[in-house]
Amino acid sequence: MLTILDFGAVLYNIDFELTKKALSALPGYNGNPINFGVDVQSDVFIDIDKGAISEAAFRAELRRLWAFTCTDAELDAAWCAILKGIFPTSTDVVRNFAARGPVVLLSNIGTMHLRYAFPECMHMLSHFTKRFYSFEIGLRKPDPAAFHHVCAIMNVAPHEATLYDDSLANCNSAAAIGMHVVRVLTPEVLVPLSLGQTSA
Predict the structure, then answer these.
(1) Mean pLDDT in runs of 10 for the chain (200 residues)?
(2) Given CB 3.0 to 4.6 Å as the disulfide criterion, which of 51, 67, 173, 180 pairs with 30?
(3) Of 126, 23, 159, 131, which Cα lies nearest the Cα of 82?
């Protein structure tokens, strides 16, 4: 059985509201709504995750949409405010899953967020059989094509894979193509599951 782990809110602590608040506090903000959440996001945020636009084009689009007059550094800091840090249990969780079979990471993530988080996560990430980042594969959950891509590369059928993800949309999409799914609402639930134990 292939294990597929999400990154944000499963292995790494994130808070979408922190980035929304940081962006809305930037100089020049025009007050237009900033749609940025686990299941609903503006196209510009989806595009950067899929690698469809460069970091420079991303900043330019943010300024066009919300009239920010800040520096690139200030804009980058606000965009990365979502990233709070790796969960204390994450390295052990990935190691435990890896001891039982192949385990891969499938993350909706752009270059800037990965670059910011990577140094802290290097050891944990080293335990994955393979890592699939949306900006590299050009596919983003909950698009079923993202799950099919992982299965094809790992040479398994969807019913031979289990997805652990916090997003209801991602879980529903994976289940619809035949994957086993576990919705992760708190990272602590992964510890017994990674050891093959049933959760309380």
Answers:
(1) 98 98 98 94 97 98 98 98 98 98 98 97 98 98 98 98 98 98 96 82
(2) 67
(3) 23
Specify the fold of 2-13+84-194.
Rossmann fold (3.40.50)
Say whether pTM exceeds 0.90: yes
Other C-beta atoms lying within 10 Å of the C-beta of residue 39: 11
**Residue 180 contacts residue 161 (beta carbons within 8 Å):** yes
Domain residue extents for the chain: 2-13+84-194, 15-83
What's the CATH number for 15-83? 1.10.150.240
Total length of the chain: 200
